[in-house]
Amino acid sequence: MNRLRHDGPLVVGAGLAGLSAALEAARAGAQVLVVTPEPLLNACSSAWAQGGMAAALTAVDSAELHARDTEAAGAGLVQPDVARTLTGVGRQTVEWLAALGAPFDRDADGGFVVSLEAAHSTPRVARVGGDGAGRAILSAVVAAVRAEKRIQVWDDARLKALAQDAGGRVVGAVIARGPHAKRIEIAATAVVLATGGAGGLFAATTTPSALKGEGMALAALAGADLLDPEFVQFHPTAIDVGLDPAPLATEALRGEGARLVDGQGRFLLGAEDDADLKPRDVVARAVHAARMDGRGAYLDARAAIGDEFPHAFPAVFAACMRAGLDPRQSPIPVMAACHYYMGGIAADADGRTSVPGLYAVGECAATGVHGANRLASNSLLEACAFGRRAGQAAAGEIGGGRSLPAQVAPDLPEPATAELRAAMTAHAGVVRTAEGLAALIALIDRLQAEHGPAAPLLAARLIAQAALDRRESRGGHYRADYPQTAARAEHTRVRLARPAAMEAAE
Ligand code: SIN
User: Fold this and answer.
1) CA-CA distance, 104 to 136, in Å (whole number)?
2) Radius of gyration over alpha carbons of the chain, in Å?
3) 169 alpha carbon to ligand 1 midpoint, in Å?
4) What H or E segment, with its residue span, contains residue 11?
5) Quick check: CB of 51 below 6 Å from ligand 1?
6) Given pLDDT bands bounded at 50, 70 and 90, which one contains residue 297?
7) Lowest CB count within 10 Å: 55, 208, 336, 361, which one?
8) Atom 1 (ligand 1): residue with closest C-alpha?
9) Cα(365)–Cα(383) distance, rounded to whole angstroms?
10) What is the residue-wise DSSP string for 133-181?
11) Is residue 506 exposed (0-12), middle (13-18) or buried (19+ Cβ within 10 Å)?
12) Distances (CA, A) of 242 to 203, 205, 239, 249, 447
């Protein structure tokens, strides 16, 4: 294996969180190496975000109101101080991105145009081109990264393991680079994980299917504390046209009055104007139930949006038309699909984890901001705001000792991955039971016996076991056999013993 010494932080992942961290670390004077498996803007969830970035931007809104909505959505598990830290920098974060060139929609007076999404008490989602926020925001950050001489990007490198010194400090990472997956151990002053979520563990997902919780799994193997691994958010309006991943029909469509109906045109959640803007978990369960009992689930935008569709929601319109479906003429078939991972590597607002030298930002991190149910469009805000803070903090790290031989997990072959994904959607999806979760864990045991302790299997096990252990329903975690919510909201905290049975990297 080749070895390389990089005198600065190593950022793993190039979505909004990773690149915001890289940019701030570089601006603080550090030399930054970013490694990512795909060219910038490809296959990261940030670029696919449609709704936008939540922030208190209007005269009737405030950071405090935004924090209260965040807490209410999070069903008892949001950490209030972290939520306030985040919402307090909402406007500043949007303006930082606008200054980088993110072309947020503006009104005639130059103010930000904001959309209404579920569980927000006022319109507050800053958007770009209707439904193109993620790609437009990330493009501005990518341009700034490319212009920054202190940042080097390797866009053909996949994380395989974290390297630690004898004291347990993370001192680098092993990556597989290029078409031949050449292994390189990179020594760095700190490692910032920005590896995204776990949507690819599920057969039905709106996120890039390559993201299978590997960052969380490798951090867990390095001894990092995890927080609430059972909490997965399912989006109620993934477009059901047989694609993997499924295209998203943004919640902003419902904010504009599009309605959820069954195959007979009956409202799924009631006739009131705001019935379809209930919290995301409630709407996802209604869509799931309608499909399970054969009524079907559709998003009908004909009356509310109609001929405005191509202009108002160009990305959703294009996805529908590619599938041969004109949303001006017909309701859009929808399903609930994995959309966001709320659990993950326990981290503070600066991205610090329980392991020295290791930072986690964005969807792989669990900072306590999302609790049991993330408020829509808080993720881009968190990715950028806490990514920036983590970059500043990581820039100040000076590194550790010599690395011990790193332990590299085996890959999971494709047929086993497909089996795992189907079982995760069936048993750790919108509705969970003890019986289903036990069957899922038995499958993970078998796949591990056949293929070794692959990182996606560990991530899936962490989710399934925590879901089995949580004998209540709360936010995105719904147990049909324990439908009640416990009076006291408790976090799940997990720390693994360092395993012995893994392949040594060399
Ligand atoms: C959406 O546009 O519906 C998704 C927004 C989000 O998940 O934050």
Assistant:
1) 8
2) 22
3) 36
4) strand 9-12
5) yes
6) very high
7) 208
8) 250
9) 10
10) HHHHHHHHHHHHHHH-TTEEEESSEEEEEEEEBTTS-EEEEEEEETTTT
11) exposed
12) 11, 11, 8, 14, 26
The residue whose CA has the least distance to atom 8 of ligand 1 is 377
Q: Using DSSP, state whether 184 is helix, strand or coil.
A: strand
Q: What is the pLDDT of residues 120-139, one digit of tens each?
A: 999 999 999 989 999 999 99
Q: Which of 50, 18, 3 is nearest to 361 (CA)?
A: 18
If DSSP codes are grouped into helix, strand and coil, which group holds residue 336? strand
- 126 C-alpha to ligand 1 centroid (Å): 12
Q: Tell whether pTM > 0.90.
A: yes
Cβ 251 under 6 angstroms from ligand 1: yes
pLDDT exceeds cutoff 50 at 202? yes
Q: Look up residue 100 and give its two tokens.
A: 């980088």
Handedness of CA 314, 319, 323, 328 (dihedral sign): negative
**CA of residue 376 to ligand 1 center, whole Å:** 5
State whether residue 321 is helix, strand or coil: helix
Q: Which residue's structure tokens are 């700190």?
A: 190
Instruction: Output the six-digit token pair for 408.
Output: 């590299």
Which of helix, strand or coil describes residue 316?
Answer: helix
What's the one-letter identity of residue 476? Answer: G
Give strand pairing partners of 158: 176
DSSP letter string, 39-91: -TTSS-HHHH--S-EE---STT--HHHHHHHHHHHTTT---HHHHHHHHHTHH
Q: Which two tokens stand for residue 403?
A: 């690395």
Q: What is the atom index within ligand 1 of the atom nearest the CA of 375?
A: 8
Q: pLDDT digits over 14-30, tens only?
A: 999 999 999 999 999 99
- Give the Cα-Cα-Cα angle 24, 30, 33 (nearest 5 degrees): 85
134 lines ligand 1 (CB under 6 A): no
For 248-262, what is the mean pLDDT? Answer: 95
The two tokens of residue 328 are 């001006």
Q: In what order do the strands lie in the sheet with 9-12?
A: 151-154, 32-35, 9-12, 190-193, 358-360
